[in-house]
Design a protein that fits this description.
Helix 3 packs across helix 5. By secondary structure, the protein is of the alpha+beta class. It is 25% helix and 27% strand. The protein is globular and about 60 Å long. Strand 8 and strand 9 form a beta hairpin. It has six helices and nine strands.
Length: 259
Protein backbone atom coordinates (compact mmCIF):
# COMPACT_ATOMS: atom_id res chain seq x y z
CA UNK A 1 0.00 0.00 0.00
CA UNK A 2 2.82 2.38 0.88
CA UNK A 3 4.43 2.16 -2.59
CA UNK A 4 1.08 2.70 -4.30
CA UNK A 5 0.25 5.66 -2.11
CA UNK A 6 3.61 7.34 -2.66
CA UNK A 7 3.30 6.78 -6.42
CA UNK A 8 -0.21 8.24 -6.48
CA UNK A 9 0.88 11.18 -4.37
CA UNK A 10 3.77 11.97 -6.73
CA UNK A 11 1.52 11.79 -9.78
CA UNK A 12 -1.19 13.90 -8.20
CA UNK A 13 1.33 16.52 -7.10
CA UNK A 14 2.79 16.72 -10.60
CA UNK A 15 -0.66 17.17 -12.10
CA UNK A 16 -1.54 19.80 -9.52
CA UNK A 17 1.49 21.86 -10.48
CA UNK A 18 0.07 22.14 -13.99
CA UNK A 19 -3.31 23.37 -12.80
CA UNK A 20 -3.94 25.34 -9.65
CA UNK A 21 -0.35 26.52 -9.22
CA UNK A 22 0.10 27.59 -12.84
CA UNK A 23 -3.38 28.58 -13.96
CA UNK A 24 -6.13 31.06 -13.45
CA UNK A 25 -8.18 33.73 -15.02
CA UNK A 26 -6.96 36.23 -17.55
CA UNK A 27 -5.47 39.27 -15.85
CA UNK A 28 -7.61 41.74 -17.80
CA UNK A 29 -8.75 44.69 -15.66
CA UNK A 30 -10.34 46.80 -18.36
CA UNK A 31 -13.23 49.04 -17.27
CA UNK A 32 -16.72 48.83 -18.67
CA UNK A 33 -17.24 50.77 -21.87
CA UNK A 34 -18.72 54.18 -21.20
CA UNK A 35 -20.86 54.37 -24.33
CA UNK A 36 -24.45 54.27 -23.13
CA UNK A 37 -26.52 52.57 -25.78
CA UNK A 38 -29.38 51.45 -23.54
CA UNK A 39 -31.86 53.53 -25.49
CA UNK A 40 -30.72 52.18 -28.85
CA UNK A 41 -33.03 49.59 -30.34
CA UNK A 42 -35.82 50.37 -27.87
CA UNK A 43 -38.35 49.84 -30.62
CA UNK A 44 -37.11 46.24 -30.97
CA UNK A 45 -37.38 45.48 -27.25
CA UNK A 46 -40.29 43.14 -27.77
CA UNK A 47 -38.41 41.14 -30.39
CA UNK A 48 -34.92 41.04 -28.86
CA UNK A 49 -33.60 40.53 -25.31
CA UNK A 50 -32.45 43.66 -23.52
CA UNK A 51 -28.81 44.49 -24.19
CA UNK A 52 -26.45 43.16 -21.54
CA UNK A 53 -23.97 45.59 -20.00
CA UNK A 54 -20.95 43.74 -18.71
CA UNK A 55 -19.70 44.00 -15.15
CA UNK A 56 -16.29 45.60 -14.68
CA UNK A 57 -13.46 43.72 -12.97
CA UNK A 58 -14.18 45.74 -9.80
CA UNK A 59 -17.84 44.73 -9.94
CA UNK A 60 -16.93 41.08 -10.53
CA UNK A 61 -14.72 41.18 -7.44
CA UNK A 62 -17.76 42.18 -5.39
CA UNK A 63 -19.72 39.13 -6.57
CA UNK A 64 -16.82 36.67 -6.37
CA UNK A 65 -16.54 34.09 -3.61
CA UNK A 66 -14.99 35.19 -0.33
CA UNK A 67 -13.73 33.30 2.69
CA UNK A 68 -16.73 32.11 4.69
CA UNK A 69 -19.07 31.83 1.70
CA UNK A 70 -18.63 28.03 1.46
CA UNK A 71 -18.43 25.93 4.61
CA UNK A 72 -15.45 23.59 4.65
CA UNK A 73 -13.52 25.46 1.96
CA UNK A 74 -10.69 27.96 2.05
CA UNK A 75 -11.31 30.71 -0.50
CA UNK A 76 -8.50 32.95 -1.76
CA UNK A 77 -7.90 35.34 -4.63
CA UNK A 78 -5.80 34.22 -7.58
CA UNK A 79 -2.45 35.96 -7.82
CA UNK A 80 0.12 36.66 -10.53
CA UNK A 81 1.59 33.18 -10.08
CA UNK A 82 -1.78 31.68 -11.00
CA UNK A 83 -2.42 33.66 -14.16
CA UNK A 84 -2.15 31.94 -17.53
CA UNK A 85 -1.83 34.25 -20.52
CA UNK A 86 -3.07 33.21 -23.99
CA UNK A 87 0.49 32.65 -25.19
CA UNK A 88 1.24 30.28 -22.30
CA UNK A 89 -1.20 27.61 -23.48
CA UNK A 90 -1.33 25.97 -26.90
CA UNK A 91 -3.71 23.28 -28.21
CA UNK A 92 -2.81 21.00 -31.10
CA UNK A 93 -6.28 21.28 -32.68
CA UNK A 94 -7.78 24.70 -33.39
CA UNK A 95 -11.32 23.49 -32.79
CA UNK A 96 -10.30 22.28 -29.32
CA UNK A 97 -8.88 25.61 -28.17
CA UNK A 98 -12.07 26.88 -26.45
CA UNK A 99 -12.44 23.81 -24.24
CA UNK A 100 -8.69 23.55 -23.66
CA UNK A 101 -8.37 27.21 -22.74
CA UNK A 102 -11.27 26.82 -20.30
CA UNK A 103 -9.17 24.44 -18.17
CA UNK A 104 -6.59 27.14 -17.59
CA UNK A 105 -8.90 30.17 -17.43
CA UNK A 106 -7.29 31.65 -20.53
CA UNK A 107 -9.10 34.72 -21.87
CA UNK A 108 -11.38 34.04 -24.81
CA UNK A 109 -13.06 36.72 -26.87
CA UNK A 110 -13.04 40.27 -25.52
CA UNK A 111 -14.13 40.23 -21.87
CA UNK A 112 -14.79 43.57 -20.20
CA UNK A 113 -13.96 42.28 -16.72
CA UNK A 114 -12.29 39.31 -15.04
CA UNK A 115 -11.92 37.91 -11.54
CA UNK A 116 -10.51 34.70 -10.11
CA UNK A 117 -10.60 32.60 -6.96
CA UNK A 118 -9.13 29.36 -5.62
CA UNK A 119 -11.42 27.18 -3.50
CA UNK A 120 -9.64 24.42 -1.58
CA UNK A 121 -11.59 21.90 0.49
CA UNK A 122 -10.40 21.48 4.06
CA UNK A 123 -9.44 17.85 4.82
CA UNK A 124 -11.35 15.97 7.48
CA UNK A 125 -9.26 15.23 10.54
CA UNK A 126 -9.22 11.74 12.05
CA UNK A 127 -6.74 11.51 14.89
CA UNK A 128 -7.29 7.75 15.17
CA UNK A 129 -6.24 7.01 11.55
CA UNK A 130 -2.85 5.47 10.83
CA UNK A 131 -0.32 7.70 9.00
CA UNK A 132 -1.00 6.25 5.54
CA UNK A 133 -4.77 6.58 5.87
CA UNK A 134 -4.33 10.05 7.29
CA UNK A 135 -2.25 11.08 4.27
CA UNK A 136 -4.78 9.54 1.90
CA UNK A 137 -7.53 11.51 3.61
CA UNK A 138 -5.58 14.74 3.30
CA UNK A 139 -5.21 14.15 -0.45
CA UNK A 140 -8.86 13.24 -0.98
CA UNK A 141 -10.07 16.85 -1.20
CA UNK A 142 -11.11 19.01 -4.13
CA UNK A 143 -9.31 22.16 -5.25
CA UNK A 144 -11.03 24.43 -7.75
CA UNK A 145 -9.95 27.30 -9.93
CA UNK A 146 -12.94 29.64 -10.28
CA UNK A 147 -12.82 32.27 -13.01
CA UNK A 148 -15.35 34.93 -13.94
CA UNK A 149 -15.43 36.77 -17.27
CA UNK A 150 -18.02 39.35 -18.30
CA UNK A 151 -19.06 40.38 -21.80
CA UNK A 152 -21.15 43.14 -23.35
CA UNK A 153 -24.18 42.37 -25.49
CA UNK A 154 -24.46 38.72 -26.48
CA UNK A 155 -20.75 38.06 -25.94
CA UNK A 156 -21.31 35.67 -23.02
CA UNK A 157 -23.91 33.65 -24.93
CA UNK A 158 -21.58 33.40 -27.94
CA UNK A 159 -18.70 32.40 -25.66
CA UNK A 160 -20.86 29.66 -24.17
CA UNK A 161 -22.02 28.38 -27.56
CA UNK A 162 -18.39 28.24 -28.70
CA UNK A 163 -17.45 26.19 -25.64
CA UNK A 164 -20.30 23.76 -26.20
CA UNK A 165 -19.37 23.25 -29.87
CA UNK A 166 -15.69 22.79 -29.04
CA UNK A 167 -16.41 20.09 -26.45
CA UNK A 168 -18.70 18.22 -28.83
CA UNK A 169 -16.08 18.34 -31.57
CA UNK A 170 -13.19 17.17 -29.39
CA UNK A 171 -14.79 14.72 -26.95
CA UNK A 172 -14.09 11.50 -28.83
CA UNK A 173 -10.68 12.04 -30.43
CA UNK A 174 -9.07 13.95 -27.58
CA UNK A 175 -6.33 16.54 -27.98
CA UNK A 176 -2.98 17.64 -26.59
CA UNK A 177 -2.33 20.84 -24.68
CA UNK A 178 0.95 22.45 -23.79
CA UNK A 179 1.26 24.69 -20.73
CA UNK A 180 4.52 26.62 -20.96
CA UNK A 181 6.08 23.66 -22.81
CA UNK A 182 4.71 20.92 -20.55
CA UNK A 183 2.41 18.69 -22.60
CA UNK A 184 -0.76 17.02 -21.35
CA UNK A 185 -2.90 14.63 -23.40
CA UNK A 186 -6.67 14.89 -22.93
CA UNK A 187 -7.82 11.34 -23.65
CA UNK A 188 -11.49 11.53 -22.69
CA UNK A 189 -14.11 14.23 -22.30
CA UNK A 190 -17.45 13.07 -20.94
CA UNK A 191 -20.39 15.44 -20.56
CA UNK A 192 -22.17 15.37 -17.21
CA UNK A 193 -25.47 16.71 -15.93
CA UNK A 194 -25.28 20.40 -15.13
CA UNK A 195 -27.75 22.90 -13.69
CA UNK A 196 -27.49 26.51 -12.62
CA UNK A 197 -27.66 30.00 -14.03
CA UNK A 198 -29.23 30.59 -17.43
CA UNK A 199 -27.01 27.98 -19.08
CA UNK A 200 -24.74 25.32 -17.62
CA UNK A 201 -22.32 22.74 -19.01
CA UNK A 202 -20.17 20.17 -17.19
CA UNK A 203 -17.64 17.48 -18.09
CA UNK A 204 -15.38 14.84 -16.61
CA UNK A 205 -11.96 15.45 -18.14
CA UNK A 206 -9.36 12.68 -18.26
CA UNK A 207 -5.67 13.40 -18.72
CA UNK A 208 -3.45 10.44 -19.57
CA UNK A 209 -4.33 6.75 -19.75
CA UNK A 210 -4.44 3.69 -17.49
CA UNK A 211 -2.81 3.99 -14.09
CA UNK A 212 -1.24 7.27 -15.17
CA UNK A 213 -4.62 8.87 -15.85
CA UNK A 214 -5.98 11.68 -13.70
CA UNK A 215 -9.61 12.85 -13.68
CA UNK A 216 -10.62 16.50 -13.51
CA UNK A 217 -13.97 18.24 -13.49
CA UNK A 218 -14.90 21.24 -15.62
CA UNK A 219 -18.11 23.22 -15.31
CA UNK A 220 -19.16 26.47 -16.92
CA UNK A 221 -22.23 28.53 -16.03
CA UNK A 222 -23.62 31.62 -17.76
CA UNK A 223 -25.59 34.14 -15.75
CA UNK A 224 -26.53 37.16 -17.84
CA UNK A 225 -23.36 38.58 -19.36
CA UNK A 226 -21.00 36.69 -17.03
CA UNK A 227 -19.46 33.26 -17.58
CA UNK A 228 -18.23 31.42 -14.48
CA UNK A 229 -15.87 28.48 -15.03
CA UNK A 230 -14.86 25.91 -12.42
CA UNK A 231 -11.85 23.63 -13.05
CA UNK A 232 -11.42 21.09 -10.26
CA UNK A 233 -8.94 18.40 -9.26
CA UNK A 234 -8.79 15.89 -6.43
CA UNK A 235 -5.27 14.86 -5.45
CA UNK A 236 -6.48 11.55 -4.05
CA UNK A 237 -8.03 10.34 -7.31
CA UNK A 238 -5.86 8.84 -10.05
CA UNK A 239 -6.39 6.12 -12.64
CA UNK A 240 -8.74 5.74 -15.60
CA UNK A 241 -11.61 4.51 -13.41
CA UNK A 242 -11.23 7.16 -10.72
CA UNK A 243 -13.90 9.82 -10.30
CA UNK A 244 -15.22 12.38 -7.84
CA UNK A 245 -18.17 14.75 -7.54
CA UNK A 246 -18.35 18.28 -8.85
CA UNK A 247 -17.83 20.79 -6.00
CA UNK A 248 -21.52 21.68 -5.95
CA UNK A 249 -21.29 23.78 -2.78
CA UNK A 250 -18.69 26.03 -4.42
CA UNK A 251 -20.59 26.21 -7.71
CA UNK A 252 -23.95 26.94 -6.07
CA UNK A 253 -22.49 29.64 -3.84
CA UNK A 254 -20.82 31.43 -6.77
CA UNK A 255 -23.88 31.22 -9.02
CA UNK A 256 -26.07 32.57 -6.21
CA UNK A 257 -23.80 35.62 -5.86
CA UNK A 258 -24.00 36.24 -9.61
CA UNK A 259 -27.79 36.04 -9.53
Amino acid sequence: MRVTLVRRTALATAVASLTLLATACSGSDSDAKGDDTASAGKDDASAKPAAVKALTSAELEKVSLEQGDVAGYKISKTGPEDIAQPGDVTVDKKECEPIGFAFYGVKRGDPVGNAGRKAVQEPKKDESADPEDLLAGMLDVTSSLVTLASYDGDGAAKNFAELRASAAECASAGFTMSMKGSKQKITKLTEEKATGGEEALAWRVQMGEGDEAAPFKLMSVRQGGTVATFFTLNLGKTGADADFEQPTAVIDAQVKKLG
